[in-house]
Specification:
alpha/beta; two-stranded antiparallel sheet; 7 strands; elongated; binds zinc ion
Amino acid sequence: MMKEINDAVDSLKKLGIHSSFARKSLFSLLQQNKLSETINLLQNAIKNIKLCLMCNNATNESLCFICNNSSRDNKTLLIVEHISDLNSIESSRVYQGLYYVLSHDFFHDNTELEMQKIQKRIIDRQIEEIIIATNTNLNGEILSQILVEYINLKVKISRIAHGIPFGQEIHNLDSATIFSSISSRKIIQNISE
Ligand SMILES: [Zn+2]
């Protein structure tokens, strides 16, 4: 296989695309003479996508459409692991508050720095409830415990309910399951504590 093809397949694999599908798509676009057109479209799209300064959601402005929307419930902050989780929760329309997507820093030895950002957000915005919506697998549970430990502020903290089968990722859930997991969330820290 040409080195160039292998390199292209490797970069698509980093996006989570299976190597056989990546190779097939590349060859198919090449055959249809659409490879460079597709890459240009992708490049243009990527050039304009950045992370929201407030919540790390994808946006083409400095703040995303959620942080910019003054009619949202700005006293509730829901923390997710991935932008795709935020998207699924938004599509379910069951949640009207604000979000925080854990950033690269949090997962790569910069937890302290990230937690300072989250704490600042909680204090500045006078957040009254934090909903931890990390995945319900082992990693998500560990992240949830780390968050509770680090937040260390007198604020109500709740965790999405375990109606979700263990090991499930939020972005794969249907709206009804998202609804029941958020509406029957469990309080793990109350303000009076
Ligand atoms: Zn935002």
